[in-house]
């Protein structure tokens, strides 16, 4: 498993990183976000949606009440927030598993709640506070598809002077 780490200095920069990352996501990609409250998961997701489903980027908010929001792009994008769910069992009972194995793009906040439901092939993104408006973002790939995508993301970051 390879990893890419970089720093963001502002919400706008985190959103821009989401946009670059989102421009590479393809059908069936599963993005597992990690990070405490306020680390920037929703901000990063807004960038992803701006790239993958541009018409609805302005709608992206912390979907804590909705659990799942769907955005229409070339491929449907499902944004989950499992903060209020206690366990994988509860998530399975709500029937969300079928989205995880489908053709859409899934972006999941509080993905640690998924436990055994986490697909083997996924991209992990960990966001951490690094002082004031700084955030450390660590990208990890699990599986061949995600590895290829992460390599392309690293190339894109260096061409955009992020790395
Ligand atoms: N570099 C940064 N990246 C993202 N958010 C930041 C950054 N610096 C400050 N913030 C602030 O942190 C908060 C992140 O909120 P949000 O994206 O909803 O986090 P989460 O979804 O992880 O709870 C926002 O209030 C945002 O303005
Ligand atoms: Mg959030």
Briefly characterize the structure.
This protein is of the alpha/beta class.
Helix content: 25-40%
Give the H and E element order: EHEHEEHHEEEH
Q: Biggest sheet, strands in spatial order?
A: 1-7-6-2-5-4-3
**CATH topology call:** Rossmann fold
According to DSSP, the number of beta strands is: 7
Number of helices: 5
- The proportion of strand residues reads 25-35%
Mean pLDDT, rounded to whole units? Answer: 93
Largest sheet: 7 strands, mixed
Oligomer: single chain
Shape label: globular
- Hetero ligands: adenosine-5'-diphosphate, magnesium ion
Low-confidence stretches: none
Name given to the CATH homologous superfamily: P-loop containing nucleotide triphosphate hydrolases
Distance N to C terminus = 19 Å
- What is the CATH class? Alpha Beta
CATH architecture, by name, is 3-Layer(aba) Sandwich
**Whole-angstrom Rg:** 14 Å
Structural class: alpha/beta
Structural description of this entry:
- With 163 residues, the chain is an alpha/beta fold.
- The chain has a 7-stranded mixed beta sheet.
- Helix content is 31%, strand content 25%.
- The chain starts with a strand and ends with a helix.
- The protein is globular, with a radius of gyration of 14 Å.
- The chain has a single domain (3-159), classed as P-loop containing nucleotide triphosphate hydrolases (Rossmann fold, 3-Layer(aba) Sandwich).
- Magnesium ion binds at residues 41-42, 62, 81, 109.
């Amino acid at each position: 498993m390879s990893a890419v780490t970089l720093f963001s200095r502002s919400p706008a920069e985190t959103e821009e990183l989401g946009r670059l990352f989102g421009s590479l996501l393809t059908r069936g990609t599963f993005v597992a976000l990690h990070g405490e409250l306020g680390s920037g998961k929703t901000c990063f997701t807004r960038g992803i949606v701006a790239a993958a489903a541009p018409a609805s980027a302005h709608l992206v908010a912390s979907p804590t009440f909705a659990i799942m929001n769907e955005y229409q792009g070339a491929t449907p994008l499902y944004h989950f927030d499992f903060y209020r769910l206690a366990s994988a069992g509860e998530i399975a009972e709500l029937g969300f598993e079928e989205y995880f194995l489908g053709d859409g793009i899934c972006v999941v906040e509080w993905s640690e709640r998924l436990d055994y439901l986490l697909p083997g092939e996924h991209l992990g993104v960990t966001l951490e506070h690094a002082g004031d408006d700084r955030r450390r973002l660590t990208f990890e790939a699990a599986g061949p598809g995600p590895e290829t995508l992460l390599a392309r993301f690293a190339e894109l970051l260096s061409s955009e002077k992020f790395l």
